[in-house]
Amino acid sequence: MSSSSTSCCDFAGSYDLSRLPEIKKLEQAALGCDYGGTSWTTRQQVDAILESLQLGTSGRLLDIGSGAGWPGLLLGRLSGCNVTLLDIPLNALLQAAERAADDGMSDRVRIVSGSGTSLPFDDQSFDRISHSDVLCCLPEKLELLQESRRVVSENSRMHFSVILPAEGLPQSERETVLATGPPFVGVDGSYPELLHASGWRVESCQDVSTEYQNSLQRLVDGIHANEDELADLLGADELRAKREHREDQIALIERGSMRRDAYLAIATNTRG
Fold first, then answer.
1. Exposure winner among 37, 61, 110, 179, fewest CB in 10 A?
2. Which of 76, 112, 49 is nearest to 262 (CA)?
3. Going by C-beta distance under 8 Å and a sequence separation of 6 or more, which residues neighbour residue 201?
4. How confident is the model at residue 1 (pLDDT cuts 50, 70, 90)?
């Protein structure tokens, strides 16, 4: 979870917090994991990602914006594939390395510090890609999708989730989503258009907004249930701001203004 009261992408700070027992308890309640995750992928959704990617022991998975290893490490542990975790914050990558060692899979995990918009890999280095709620925290959305296509071969699979404004919103409501959602929640055009332009074909798109809302609500409930110890840890004003921010996000989802989608895309024989 983020340490920022205004965004979900203050990654470096939140990874340090995620090691604390009080924060692990919140993460477990909201997502069903304790990896120090900053995306909204739940433990149940990991099984769906595993199935859609058709991961097996021979797979070469790149998890972009991997953070402390959620959900990339679990995908690797469950499938037996080789996993490359890529992100920028060193504290997150160190945490991921520790978790890989604890899970006995260091020999199948490579950890790389780098940007998703300039991947430090050769063409066709992977056959599976995942990223969870990364594009809504990044302005260069097309560049990440283009780079993702470059490092895989034709017919490779990519699964990603993204938070975005609903279509057709009044301007005032769209501005509310832009101010309340992740820092780059807005998208020019649409994700299907971006995928097509970057050499991907949409295989499926699932609305997972209800699960996202439920996770947010479990987080808020956990904050209420553990308010005293969390206030001692974070400060009462900061805790209240975090809770109110998440409550505002729940309200946006409830009225259909903000959503979370999960895409499965297939690499085509053309590249943008």
1. 179
2. 49
3. 195, 265, 266, 267, 268
4. very low
Q: What's the rounded mean pLDDT across residues 13-36?
A: 85
Cβ contact 134:108 at 8 Å: no
List Cβ neighbours of 213 (8 Å cut-off, separation of 6 or more). Answer: 250, 253, 254
Residue 57 CB-density burial (10 A; 0-12 exposed, 13-18 middle, 19+ buried): exposed
Least confident window among 36-40, 116-120, 146-150, 257-261: 36-40
DSSP the chain: --S-SS-S--HHHHHHHHTSHHHHHHHHHHHS--S---S---HHHHHHHHHHHT--TT-EEEEET-TTTTTHHHHHHHH--EEEEEES-HHHHHHHHHHHHHTT-GGGEEEEE-BTTB--S-TT-EEEEEEES-GGG-S-HHHHHHHHHHTEEEEEEEEEEEEEEPTT--HHHHHHHHHHS-TT---SS-HHHHHHHTTEEEEEEEE-HHHHHHHHHHHHHHHHHTHHHHHHHH-HHHHHHHHHHHHHHHHHHHTTSEEEEEEEEEE-S---
**87 within 8 A of 65, measured Cβ to Cβ:** yes
Output phi, psi for 166, to 5 deg.
-65, 155
Among residues 99, 44, 42, which one has the least CA distance to residue 67?
Answer: 99
Does the structure show a pLDDT above 50 at 8? Answer: no
For 176-225, write each residue's pLDDT tens digit: 999 999 999 999 999 999 999 999 999 999 999 999 999 999 999 999 99
Quote the pTM value: 0.93
